[in-house]
Amino acid sequence: MTPLDEAIDAIRPIDARAIAEARAHQDRLTKPRGSLGVLEDVAVQLSGIAGVCPPPMPVPAALAIFAADHGVHAQGVSPWPQEVTAQMVANFTAGGAVANAFAAQAGVSVTVVDVGVAADLPPAPGLVSRKVAYGTADLSQGPAMTPDQAAEALAVGVRTARDLVAAGNRCLITGDMGIANTTASAALVCAFAGREPAGVTGRGTGIDDETHLRKIEVVRRALRVNGIPEAGAVQEGRDAALRALAAVGGLEHAAIAGFVLGGAAARVPVVLDGVIAGSAALVAAALAPDAVGHCVAGHRSAEPGHAAALTHLGLRPLVDLELRLGEGTGGLLAHPLVSAAVRVMHDVATFDSAGVADKDG
Ligand SMILES: Cc1cc2ncn([C@H]3O[C@H](COP(=O)(O)O)[C@@H](O)[C@H]3O)c2cc1C
Ligand SMILES: O=C(O)c1cccnc1
């Protein structure tokens, strides 16, 4: 069995008994029932993921930033030169990016994985070289990846998750870096959530109206050229999902999908970042629907495709600050909220233990 098959095989629904126990525990704590809103749901979900109540604290946590380039950059869909991908990888390993600042603030480690940067990168601390290709082909002209490349990139994500969990991490956070990757994200959202390009193609790093219209056309062409029906969700199921991923995805999208599957297989919560992660999670969900139960939507980004992906996945974002950066920044901001939700389960007294009268008693 391949690592991908093994991961998919190992994924189970989150544990119903632990969920029920966690709900009952929440109701015994010295607070009005439901008063912690969505945080109660998060704590209950983490109990279900771990299969125990209270769940372990989601620490240490690790961010993995998957970096790759995109052939579709040639269509002028991003105002930034492709070299910025490699330059930002150097910035991450030097500690100078926003993701590094947020990771330092949250006490999260940063691993950068080169899964497909279109340049040879010098070795650096925290950089893992798992290059599958020097970028994808142009998805608006034909498939972005061969099926083998997509499978290999998925396996890179599975392996990264496995390694980080084996190193003792109890929470995984997704990150991405890849100039033009919001174009592939939009195409994936169309393919996996059955949406129209015009509704889910955003402005990425910041493009003018004319470029935005061109980007929508590029996504439309990508779907047409690759035989993916517009506004018709692809069949769920492994082969169709792998084909659609290879056709219009990116190497980092594939790796992030694998990372989600690897985290779910290890029964560790995976905090998703923005639209790149959201579109990759759609792929993971098509490959293993029960993986979604292991995902926490860290935030909702300003990219319209992200909201569409989260709706399709049934995930509620924890933070909504109009971020549109990626790198894992939204996931990192959400991590303290996830920790706080779990800490309540460990530290807060029950009505019985604290001698506080319940509303009925
Ligand atoms: C300096 C810089 C740092 C970034 N960090 C994340 N992104 C984000 O923006 C890119 C996607 O936007 P688009 O599809 O419009 O190219 C990705 O690299 C994503 O990680 C960055 C982009 C830039 C320019
Ligand atoms: O949603 C995101 O994470 C995002 C948006 C714009 C550019 N890069 C990433």
| Spatial arrangement of strands, main beta sheet | 3-2-1-4-5-6
Number of helices: 15
Task: Name the shape in a single word.
Answer: globular
* Low-confidence segments: none
Structure summary, number of beta strands: 6
Question: What share of the residues does DSSP label as strand, in percent?
Answer: 5-15%
N-to-C SSE series? HHHEHHEEHEHHHHHEHEHHH
Known CATH architecture of the largest domain:
3-Layer(aba) Sandwich
The CATH class label of the largest domain is Alpha Beta
CATH superfamily of the largest domain: Nicotinate-nucleotide-dimethylbenzimidazole phosphoribosyltransferase (CobT), large domain
Secondary structure class reads alpha/beta
- Rg estimate, integer Å: 20 Å
Summarize the biggest pleated sheet: 6 strands, parallel
Helix content: 40-55%
Per the CATH scheme, the topology name of the largest domain is: Rossmann fold
The first-to-last residue Cα distance is 57 Å
Pfam family, one: DBI_PRT
Protein name: Nicotinate-nucleotide--dimethylbenzimidazole phosphoribosyltransferase
Family: Belongs to the CobT family.
EC number: 2.4.2.21
